[in-house]
Amino acid sequence: MKKIFSFVVVFAGLVIFGTNVYSQSVISGTFALRNPQTGKDVRPYRAGTADGNKIILYPHQEWKCMTWNFKHIDGTTYQLENLFTGKTFQASSAVKAGVTLWQQPLADNDKSQYWEFISQGNDTYLIRLSGTQFYITTSSDDTDSNIILMPRQDNPTRQLWALVEQSPTF
What we know:
This protein is mainly beta and 170 residues long. Helix content is 12%, strand content 40%.
Protein backbone atom coordinates (compact mmCIF):
# COMPACT_ATOMS: atom_id res chain seq x y z
CA MET A 1 0.00 0.00 0.00
CA LYS A 2 2.85 2.35 0.86
CA LYS A 3 4.39 1.79 -2.61
CA ILE A 4 1.11 2.61 -4.33
CA PHE A 5 0.70 5.80 -2.29
CA SER A 6 4.29 6.85 -3.12
CA PHE A 7 3.68 6.18 -6.82
CA VAL A 8 0.47 8.24 -6.79
CA VAL A 9 2.21 11.16 -5.07
CA VAL A 10 5.13 11.09 -7.53
CA PHE A 11 2.78 10.72 -10.51
CA ALA A 12 0.60 13.60 -9.30
CA GLY A 13 3.73 15.76 -8.89
CA LEU A 14 4.82 14.98 -12.43
CA VAL A 15 1.38 15.82 -13.80
CA ILE A 16 1.28 19.11 -11.91
CA PHE A 17 4.87 20.00 -12.88
CA GLY A 18 4.23 19.08 -16.51
CA THR A 19 1.04 21.15 -16.54
CA ASN A 20 2.92 24.18 -15.20
CA VAL A 21 5.68 23.84 -17.77
CA TYR A 22 3.33 23.57 -20.72
CA SER A 23 0.65 25.98 -19.53
CA GLN A 24 2.80 29.00 -20.46
CA SER A 25 1.11 30.71 -23.38
CA VAL A 26 2.91 31.06 -26.69
CA ILE A 27 4.42 34.53 -26.94
CA SER A 28 3.32 36.20 -30.14
CA GLY A 29 4.01 39.69 -31.39
CA THR A 30 6.69 42.34 -31.08
CA PHE A 31 8.25 43.34 -27.77
CA ALA A 32 11.07 45.21 -26.13
CA LEU A 33 13.08 43.09 -23.68
CA ARG A 34 13.30 45.18 -20.49
CA ASN A 35 15.35 44.42 -17.41
CA PRO A 36 13.07 45.49 -14.51
CA GLN A 37 16.03 46.34 -12.26
CA THR A 38 17.50 48.88 -14.68
CA GLY A 39 14.38 49.82 -16.65
CA LYS A 40 16.54 49.46 -19.76
CA ASP A 41 16.08 47.33 -22.85
CA VAL A 42 18.10 45.11 -25.17
CA ARG A 43 19.16 46.53 -28.55
CA PRO A 44 22.02 46.50 -31.07
CA TYR A 45 24.71 49.05 -30.20
CA ARG A 46 23.97 52.40 -31.88
CA ALA A 47 21.26 50.59 -33.86
CA GLY A 48 24.03 49.28 -36.10
CA THR A 49 23.10 46.78 -38.77
CA ALA A 50 26.50 45.10 -39.23
CA ASP A 51 27.04 41.46 -38.34
CA GLY A 52 29.04 41.28 -35.12
CA ASN A 53 27.57 44.48 -33.69
CA LYS A 54 27.37 44.04 -29.91
CA ILE A 55 24.05 43.78 -28.09
CA ILE A 56 23.67 46.28 -25.27
CA LEU A 57 21.40 47.76 -22.59
CA TYR A 58 19.72 51.08 -23.46
CA PRO A 59 17.02 53.34 -21.96
CA HIS A 60 13.59 52.38 -23.25
CA GLN A 61 12.30 53.93 -26.46
CA GLU A 62 9.59 52.69 -28.78
CA TRP A 63 12.03 52.29 -31.67
CA LYS A 64 12.30 49.44 -34.17
CA CYS A 65 15.91 48.84 -33.08
CA MET A 66 14.61 48.04 -29.59
CA THR A 67 11.78 45.79 -30.75
CA TRP A 68 11.99 42.05 -31.29
CA ASN A 69 9.60 39.87 -33.27
CA PHE A 70 9.08 36.51 -31.55
CA LYS A 71 9.35 33.52 -33.90
CA HIS A 72 8.01 30.51 -32.05
CA ILE A 73 10.17 27.40 -32.46
CA ASP A 74 8.68 24.92 -29.99
CA GLY A 75 7.33 24.96 -26.43
CA THR A 76 8.90 27.99 -24.73
CA THR A 77 11.68 28.40 -27.33
CA TYR A 78 11.90 31.34 -29.72
CA GLN A 79 14.15 32.96 -32.25
CA LEU A 80 14.10 36.76 -32.02
CA GLU A 81 14.22 39.08 -35.02
CA ASN A 82 15.07 42.76 -34.57
CA LEU A 83 12.52 44.90 -36.44
CA PHE A 84 15.13 47.45 -37.55
CA THR A 85 18.03 45.20 -38.59
CA GLY A 86 16.12 42.05 -39.54
CA LYS A 87 18.77 40.11 -37.58
CA THR A 88 19.01 38.25 -34.30
CA PHE A 89 21.63 37.78 -31.59
CA GLN A 90 23.78 34.93 -30.37
CA ALA A 91 26.96 34.32 -28.37
CA SER A 92 29.99 36.08 -29.89
CA SER A 93 32.26 33.07 -29.28
CA ALA A 94 32.20 29.68 -27.60
CA VAL A 95 29.43 29.61 -25.00
CA LYS A 96 30.87 30.20 -21.53
CA ALA A 97 30.30 32.50 -18.57
CA GLY A 98 30.74 36.16 -19.51
CA VAL A 99 30.63 35.78 -23.28
CA THR A 100 28.98 38.78 -24.96
CA LEU A 101 26.08 38.66 -27.37
CA TRP A 102 26.36 40.00 -30.89
CA GLN A 103 24.13 40.51 -33.87
CA GLN A 104 23.99 37.91 -36.63
CA PRO A 105 21.70 37.09 -39.57
CA LEU A 106 18.79 34.80 -38.81
CA ALA A 107 19.59 31.19 -39.66
CA ASP A 108 17.02 28.41 -39.88
CA ASN A 109 17.65 25.56 -37.44
CA ASP A 110 20.60 27.34 -35.75
CA LYS A 111 20.21 26.45 -32.08
CA SER A 112 22.77 29.10 -31.11
CA GLN A 113 19.94 31.56 -31.90
CA TYR A 114 17.22 29.75 -29.93
CA TRP A 115 16.13 31.24 -26.61
CA GLU A 116 13.96 29.61 -23.94
CA PHE A 117 11.63 31.99 -22.07
CA ILE A 118 11.15 30.62 -18.57
CA SER A 119 8.31 32.35 -16.71
CA GLN A 120 9.20 33.65 -13.25
CA GLY A 121 5.77 35.09 -12.48
CA ASN A 122 4.83 38.77 -12.42
CA ASP A 123 5.23 38.81 -16.23
CA THR A 124 9.00 38.31 -16.01
CA TYR A 125 11.20 35.69 -17.63
CA LEU A 126 14.62 34.17 -17.46
CA ILE A 127 15.94 33.86 -21.02
CA ARG A 128 18.20 30.83 -21.45
CA LEU A 129 20.21 29.88 -24.50
CA SER A 130 18.52 26.68 -25.62
CA GLY A 131 20.32 23.50 -24.64
CA THR A 132 22.62 25.27 -22.15
CA GLN A 133 22.59 26.55 -18.58
CA PHE A 134 23.46 30.12 -19.64
CA TYR A 135 21.06 33.05 -19.31
CA ILE A 136 20.92 36.52 -20.83
CA THR A 137 22.36 38.83 -18.17
CA THR A 138 23.11 42.54 -17.85
CA SER A 139 26.81 43.18 -17.26
CA SER A 140 26.01 46.42 -15.38
CA ASP A 141 23.24 49.02 -15.00
CA ASP A 142 25.03 51.44 -17.32
CA THR A 143 23.67 52.54 -20.68
CA ASP A 144 25.50 50.78 -23.54
CA SER A 145 26.73 48.00 -21.20
CA ASN A 146 27.10 44.59 -22.80
CA ILE A 147 24.52 41.86 -22.58
CA ILE A 148 26.31 38.64 -21.61
CA LEU A 149 25.62 34.99 -20.88
CA MET A 150 25.96 33.74 -17.31
CA PRO A 151 24.87 30.68 -15.31
CA ARG A 152 21.74 31.18 -13.22
CA GLN A 153 22.42 33.45 -10.27
CA ASP A 154 21.09 33.19 -6.71
CA ASN A 155 19.78 36.76 -7.02
CA PRO A 156 18.62 36.84 -10.65
CA THR A 157 17.69 40.55 -10.88
CA ARG A 158 20.26 41.01 -13.68
CA GLN A 159 18.72 38.02 -15.44
CA LEU A 160 15.03 38.93 -15.25
CA TRP A 161 13.33 40.31 -18.34
CA ALA A 162 9.88 41.76 -18.90
CA LEU A 163 8.23 41.89 -22.30
CA VAL A 164 7.01 45.35 -23.28
CA GLU A 165 4.62 45.07 -26.20
CA GLN A 166 5.27 47.72 -28.82
CA SER A 167 4.67 48.46 -32.50
CA PRO A 168 7.06 51.26 -33.45
CA THR A 169 6.72 53.15 -36.72
CA PHE A 170 10.37 54.25 -36.94
